[in-house]
Amino acid sequence: MNNNTFYVLRILFFYFIQLIFITAVFSQQQTIKITKGVTVNKPMIIYSPEYQKEYILTHYWEDINADSLNRSNELINNLFVDFVHLLYQVPQKTAIISLKKMVNLYFLDELILNKILKLSEKNFFDPNSLFRNEEFYIPIIETAISVNSLTYNQKRYFTDQLVLMNKNRINTFASDFNFALANGTVLNLYSIKSKYLILLFSNPQCHTCEVTIDQFFHSEIISKLLKIKKNNFSLLQILNIYTDNDLKVWFNYERSYPKLWINGYDKDFEINKKGLYDLKAMPTLYLLNEEKKVILKDISLLEIENYLNTIKDSI
């Protein structure tokens, strides 16, 4: 046996031993408890806590008995709550894969699929949900529609929701519209020049709107940025729009709005007539960039503050 042959055999032997080791490690499973009576087995080789969460999430529903889910609403509710919490601990790409997988696993079971769709709507689409996230709800609905497991009425219902959610999505340009100021001047969304723009849809008769406006007034980061200009260019502006048709209500309240804001009303009611924005609840908040691309959609003031605080040193 010459030296070259001996060298090749040594390399092959080394890789063979590595293969045996990896196989042995992966054959050892660690049981992770998800909720009462439900577990996921993961390979022992997964050391990273971040990767462990991703593994659990992408295999979350695989070993759960369908009969158990059908028998117990409490079980599926608890499972879904824990699932939602995990979604916010992994990269969005992993979360979306897991959401689609959940629907694909149960699309043949009409009862479970309907439960999942109701829980998804309640958590991700309801305007009052703490976990509202259309970017999570969209892949669920798209997958449910694509697997042809829905009734005709369900398809129409969820398709209408998709149409709403696909308007003014994050990283797309916001829909333009005209609005009038109290003095009669007519402007449009894209005429406002600022580095960032908070688009606020509100109503004087909405108590939550009053509370939100008061929170705006006491927000340190927003108050600071509203007063800063660079080369006569505002860092932040707030556009407060009234979309309903009782203009007397708006004109009576208009003087109460902060003077540093741009306060206007939809003179021709085109926002509601054309369905330009999804205004299921008041107030509705968007954060736009200089080009009027959507950065944050239908979010809370706290989320806007958190975003502005993270980028304040770079603007």
Q: How many domains is the backbone divided into?
A: 2
- How would you classify the helix and strand content by structural class? alpha+beta
Helical stretch count?
13
How would you describe the shape? Answer: globular
Main sheet characteristics:
6 strands, mixed
Q: Helical percent range?
A: 40-55%
Specify Rg, calculated over alpha carbons.
26 Å
Q: Give helix and strand order, one letter per element, not per position.
A: HEEHHHHHHHEEEHHEEHEHEEH
What is the number of E strands?
Answer: 10
Distance between the termini: 70 Å
Low-confidence stretches: 24-29
Please state the oligomeric state of the protein chains shown. Answer: single chain
Mean pLDDT: 85
Q: Note the beta-strand portion.
A: 15-25%
How does this model look, in words?
Helices cover 49% and strands 17% of the residues. It is an alpha+beta fold. It has 2 domains: 29-165; 178-314, Glutaredoxin. Strands 5, 6, 7, 8, 9 and 10 form a 6-stranded mixed β-sheet that branches. α11 (247-253) links the parallel β7 and β8. The termini are far apart. Mean pLDDT is 85; it is low at 24-29.
Main attributes?
6-stranded mixed β-sheet, 2 domains, two-stranded antiparallel ribbon, single chain, alpha+beta, Glutaredoxin, 10 strands, 315 residues
